[in-house]
Predict the structure of Gfo/Idh/MocA family oxidoreductase.
Amino acid sequence: MTPTRIAVVGVGKIARDQHLPSIARSSAFELAAAVSRHGSVDGVDNFTDIETFLKERRDVPAVALCAPPMPRYDMAVSALKAGRHVLLEKPPGTTVGEVEALTELAREHGVSLFATWHSRFAPAVEPARQWLFGKTIRHVEIVWKEDVRRWHPGQAWIWEAGGFGVFDPGINALSILTAIVPSVFVTGASLEVPENRKMPIGVELSMKSLAGFDVDAVFDWRQEGPQTWEIRIDTDAGALVLADGGSRMSVDGEARPDGLEAEYDGIYERFAALMKAGKSDVDIAPLKLVADAFLVGRQVDVEPFHE
Ligand code: NAP
């Protein structure tokens, strides 16, 4: 099989940590170019803007957009209009409406759009979904607490409008939740916003399912020491705990075998399959929960945050 040429756009933390290594390991893709204003990748064509890349490298049919959500919409529109298949990092957009618009544009141009949710590819997520099958869920509790200074050093965009604040990691929990339990909707939220920032540093979120259970979530960026990314699901057949962001699973305290650790390799496999099948995969369920949290959320001012 001849690998599909792909370009990475936005050479920052996630591009370097995950996308470039996964593309290098993939037999389905071959890195042909990189587009970034400041970053670059050795051994391939480098561009500083996407328009020039799209004009000069018409032989590259796919792009992975790894920039933050705010500049990503315009990049995606340009790439889709130029007939390229597009992979979007999470979150897929700053609003629900723009992601729906991109979905429509991909359909019009007959190309694949893949809105990725990397946490859904974590090794224990699919085993958890399967374990839950046929069981009655009584309650879900999500605790997602990490140290923003450790995971997002110097990332000013994350505090700007459209940058999601603590929902940037929190939406990973919501992407797992919406993949493994029946649909839920937001009933209330409290958003703690530092006086000198635009986006929340802490969130308490209440959700409900038509199936009858409640979901309580806490996202916090002020956690020093051990980090917590945990989802606990109480059922009629025991308590399932997904720990370490979906990497490990236990039932009533007993560890269960999980799948292989291959989040981004799994993402590129899926992108290749979507392109081959001429399909798109855009699930806005996690984004809708965040949007609704901002709609009903009560803002609480908290002390200024300094790096
Ligand atoms: P980052 O380190 O800030 O890198 C993003 C890159 O995008 C920047 O280096 C920048 O490169 C480019 N860019 C283009 N326009 C930009 C703009 N207006 N503002 C800022 N950067 C711009 O961010 P990241 O951590 O890689 O996150 C990027 C996306 O991946 C986010 O949506 C995030 O949620 C997601 N993600 C991140 C992680 C993680 O662990 N960091 C994990 C999973 C997903 P140039 O300046 O060279 O153009």
Remarks:
- The longest strand covers residues 184-194.
